Amino acid sequence: MSVDKSKSKYSFYESVELYFDKAASTMRYDAGLLDQIKACNSVYQMRFPVRIKNKIQVIESYRVQHSHHKLPTKGGIRFSSKVNQDEVMALAALMTYKCAIVDVPFGGAKGGVKISPSKYNEDQLERITRRYTTELIKKNFIGPGTDVPAPDYGTGGREMSWILDTYQTFNYGDINAMGCVTGKPVGQGGIRGRTEATGLGVFYGTREAVSYEEDMAALGLTTGLKGKTVILQGLGNVGYWSAKFFHDAGAKIIAIAEYHGAIYNKDGLNPDKVLKHIKKTGKIVKFPGAETLSERKDVLTMKCDILIPAALEQQIHKGNAKAIKAKIICEAANGPVTPEADAILNEKGVMVLPDMYLNAGGVTVSYFEWLKNLSHVRFGRMDKRFNQGANERMVDLVEKLTGNKLTDRQKNTITKGADEIDLVYSGLEETMVSAYRDIRAVWKKNKKIDDLRTAAFHVAISKVAQSYQALGIFP
Ligand code: NAD
């Protein structure tokens, strides 16, 4: 299925369906099975009252469970004034495919609360979050074995703590209650590395994609991230951490767009310093030593090697796709490229690393957090000392046999047992690298597939189809 040029605009959910259909047309599955994979299994729309400054406000909100082929379902909760049912359905569907690509055994889900968080104080946000959680509890739309939310646009560890506390209050004595939500602060059952996980996954995924000489030569680029020019849209959780890891690896972040404007410096920007400036002044504009751009959206069409949209969906559309000069687009946000723009970018030969693969780091580490909560033990607690002792004995033996002595520093590097954070980073790196290899293999092998997004959908559809077929319902 290809883009219908007579149609004025695809909704976000229609875009996801279109991408699905394009990949499905290259596969031989029963039509009923494909329909079942594509459909949203449960859609829950809520309206609940909350008292704000002595007035009652009725809040619109959603939870969508896209696929029950694996349980629990999993997906973030978004707080934004733009939330609507179509958007939440699209994001839930992407979660199903995302989990399949990175072999995380969950079905996809997503939640949305239609509020602009900056318009409420902390107390009011707490009331809204707790009431939303209560609505989920009422209909069994939350629980460690049914549906497990996480942070998304406009939410973070603070909101996840409120969700956990509310769930525990209603499920007193449930030993697995901690696993009802992920992205919690470490002191509340969270896992080290979750905050940076999505950005770190964006970094691991891109680093792997730019390591293939053949693929980079086709774009007129050399391999590696060092020296590559990067433009970022959105310095929130995902954007900041992506920028930080790219910067640390030697890439040059030449422009950053934020809600209130954009800045540019051809010699590169330090994301930590930019964030500090935003925290101090409330805005990105007038960052010392950088040029302030009049239009934040202008950064999207500036010359660079890598463009990272890390804010919201539908930012690159048919109106600006032709003007894009980046050679690689890293979809850190969900759905930042519309199908019309995707077709234009493909024609131009731009490499698009698709959202459902590239930003899967968050759900991957959420899976580790959920496992930690259900096993009631921190990763590394049982074996760190044991491994360290075994490594020390090995090094002592090598020193004795060779007569060579290592420095204390060399010895520590070799013998150190793994902490929770080491295991989380290594598990995430392995996940992102092997998933990219699977997607790239499909892209290179299948003549009907001309882009990484279709290849990623192909991988996801095969895995979900296998799950349904294992149930014996579908041929
Ligand atoms: P966030 O709220 O922490 O950050 C988003 C940032 O984008 C904010 O700083 C906001 O000011 C900025 N922004 C909004 N509109 C903008 C615009 N038009 N131009 C420039 N900047 C703009 O949200 P987040 O958690 O970083 O999520 C960002 C995207 O990543 C979303 O699409 C989300 O669905 C996706 N995502 C998030 C996670 C996660 O773990 N948080 C995981 C996977 C995908």
Global morphology:
globular
The helix/strand series, from N terminus to C terminus, equals HHEEEHEHEHHHEHEEHEEEHEHHHHHH
**End-to-end distance, in Å?**
23 Å
Count of individual beta strands: 12
Give the helix/strand layout.
Layout: H1 12-24, H2 31-38, E1 42-52, E2 55-65, E3 73-79, H3 85-101, E4 107-113, H4 122-138, E5 147-151, H5 157-170, H6 194-209, H7 213-219, E6 229-233, H8 237-248, E7 252-258, E8 261-264, H9 271-281, E9 291-293, E10 306-309, E11 328-330, H10 339-348, E12 351-353, H11 355-358, H12 361-375, H13 384-402, H14 408-415, H15 420-445, H16 452-470
Helix pairs in contact: 1-3, 1-16, 3-16, 4-5, 6-8, 6-12, 6-15, 12-15, 15-16
Quick overview:
The protein is built from 16 helices and twelve strands. It is of the alpha/beta class.
